[in-house]
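re: that complex we talked abt at group meeting.

here r the seqs, copy pasted straight from the sheet so there may be weird spacing, ignore it
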Amino acid sequence: MIMTGFDAKVALDVQLRAAKVVVTDLTETDPDDGAHVVPGVIRRALAGLRLLSGVPFSYLVPDSSLLPPESVRFFYLNRNWTDALVQGALSIGTFTSAERIQLEALREIIRAEADETERTIRQPGGEERLAGPGGAISGFVIRSKLVSGWPGLHVRAYRTDRQQDAEIIPESDPDRLKVLRMERLAPAVLLVLFDGVPAVVHVEEPRQGIQFGALRPDAEPLSTSRELPLRDASTGADLPGQQVPVPFRRDSAGVIHMRKLRDRIAEAPGTNVGGHTGMSVDANEFALEMLRFPFRQVFGDPANEPSQPLVDVFRPKVSFATLEARFRAVIQP
Amino acid sequence: MVALGTFVLHSFVKPPVTAGSYQLHGTQPIAGITVGEHVADVIVSSPRYVMPPDQILSTFPPAMAEGDFGGRLPQIVLKRRTLPWERDPGGPPPGTNDPPRPWLALVVIAEGEGALSPDPVPVAECVTPGEALPHPEDADSPAGYYLTVTETVVKKVFPTVEDLPLLVHVREVDIRDTELANGDDDGWLAVVLANRLPIAVPTTDPATGQPVSVPVRYLACLLNLEGQVDVLPTDADLATDDTFHLVAAVQDLRLAARSAASTDLVVMGTGHAATVTNAPLAAPGAGAAIGQSEAAVAAGAATPGSNAAVAAWASPKASPSAKATATQAVDAGVAVRKEMAGGWAIDVSPFVLEKTYRFPVLAHWSFTATNEGDFRSIVQALDVGLLGTQYGTVFSADPNGPDPAQKVEHVNLPDPKAPPRPDPPELAETGHLALPQTSRRGDAATAWYRGPFGPLPTDRDPPDSPLAHVSDQLRTLTPDGREDVSLAAAFEIGRLLGLSQPALVSALVQWRSEQFGAARAHTIADVLTQASPFTPDVTRQGRDLGRLVGMQMMNLAGQTPETVVGPGRPIADPGRPIGLEGPLDQVVAAGLGLDLGQLQEQARIRGMVAALAGTDVVVAGGQRIDQATLVGMRTTLDDEVNRVATAAQPRRVDPGTGEAGAAADIPDALDELLDAPHREEPER
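got the structure back, here u go
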């Protein structure tokens, strides 16, 4: 074929058209993810492995005494361990040296793309897609009645302590850490992985709507009395330290003696109740006093509290010094 | 409208009229003419025996829920704010300043304290026999459920007359906050609270001596109190305590039912059934709740083991679930309702000696209260630590602390009374754990293992560190002679997890065969184009590489178009400056042909608007445009439009001559190339 008038510009034009075809040939273009070298099926499977999906629990927590009942354990994720996990999966189907060399040549690309995909495994609706190189991962595992009794716990991690803020900031906020994985591994075991190392972690009671009630004194589960912390009915603000015992009808299981309760509320100073109708406490004021908000537990760094140094929190049997001495004795007889 | 994320509580919202029949009389007095009176019958309706499901927004605790609700009052949220005040319940006249009395009350009864009718009955039978509600024709449903309770239960559990207004309030919420009012239209809700905390019964386990709790099932009923307010207790005759009485039910009718029925059965000689089970009476999970007290009574009646027969006696029909499975055609909603009411399906009338009352039940649901501790007490008692910690810190009273009553965070030391804790395994400060290992030669040894979770941050190997192909490459030996199999174990489990998914295996194999070559070409192209992006030797490296170079160049050009292609044209050109000579009002007046001086003088007297309104519009020239001028103007406009369109049209370089021209008609080399496959006889 002889082409006349075929100069460099036309050649370039043809090449550009051809290049578009090659782009689709070379890289897998995922409608969700964009262009990647590693196919989406493999990439997501590897990222899922990185987040330990499917890994038997005894591999995660090798001894039951490390996670006793009613406990929460925070941890740093060992990236080398999860990389070894991924290497194991990648080794499937490598029969010849050529295949292994090919795999070896691609290992950096695979690792970088799996790092990127980790953040796309869990994407709550309405949240922005976050991207970036793989960093430190931390998390906690909790084994408690909380997990089975309160399905739908809210877990949020913050890079800086924002306890004062009542607002809930989105996961893409720089002060908040993305939750990479939150899954119940067993009815009473919850695993949470964070994209980074948080300063504080909030665990909050599920918000099933507004509830009314009274508190157990001193959090004794079997107590037969209840206390009602008071609020100022004119402003809705809490009255710190002010509470009244809840009166019950004699010989009735748990039936509140309303008349006496509202008299006690009315007698307490600072509650500013009554006066609108003939009753000492109006129905809306009573509801305000009885209103209970979801409880939020804040886990912080124990190092923040000078009375509790880290050594009290983590007490291994074999210390670094012992290990070193033992190893030196072997190495330098 | 309330502010975002807030709500307002109101004591009551009283409707102008309550439900009932009304007559509207209309007269029109006109002098000299007699106009007949207009009489219209108006019926104001409201739910009476059945609460329509669309009026119920939510309940707490949720139906069939199980949990520690001992610190929370059950509640039902209704959508129409006036609903609790739409009927007059009667009763003693309230004081002049008292709030209106609602006709609805939420009553929570434990299993055995009352009986819920198993099936809907005609509404006339829903009230205490002998009573009749006013206006019986005002019924929203032909049949309804009713609750039968004894006078004892009414006195001990039901709210007092004075309590009724206190237990109902209206909440105005921000409807944008969907957590509070999903599905509600105006954000106004009526909330009916119960007066009883659903407690479980703590008891002592005889085997261990530890306190345990027995779950208790509760039934929450939204009752219609119309005409029966007088039977409610009053504040005056109620004693009070600061602690509640620990009993599962204030009165267990099932015991009475059992003894009565058993006696009957004994007389008839059929009372000795084989097994002790209260399954048809008690719902699943509630068996333990009533086990203790029942056992005692059953023994006293000397007829143990008649429960199955009693069940058949108490509820002649089969149990709801059995019936549902048997007929296959029972409405699922009905089956669930019956299941929920299972513990309250007692036939009360034959054996209870005291007076019983019936109340219409508009809505009911059941739930189970346990005593596991509430969220706060459980979460604060958690043992907190880093993974690797065997026993961390707890937030509770420290027996060794300076103040044993003060709750502080302290080390979770073993309780001397508790059973001994397991010995901690050998655990290094790095998080490694010594686990028993059988070596490949069969020797029993210990090996170090650390899972993915550790108490200390670890460094990640650099990206170019060698890749392991078999797990043995990751086995390491620590200086004390023991193996560290952490990474080898991770490799193996990763391999097994991968192999467990056939789709992943086939994807890996396919990727390897197809894509590795492409990726290699990609890498080579990267190297080549990075070295000299603009001088590729297209012919030597073959077709694919040429395409790659083109792609690379396009990418480079796309990244920095201003250096490769040239600076972009601004989106909009600045407009022509408008020259204004002199003050603005003079310019405007001159342009419109107005006499500014006269206008200003008028404006001083009447104001500028009035002055303008009073001035005639100046007509320019006073002549019409003739046809010839119009044609001339049109031609000029068409020429200008054509000129702009031609200038805006993209031009392409003619490859033969190098001249720029309109590319629409003249086929160039590329067109030839594109057309080549379509020609019948290719040019050779």
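couple things i noticed - The longest strand of chain B covers residues 356-369. Chain B touches chain A through 180 residues (CB under 8 Å).
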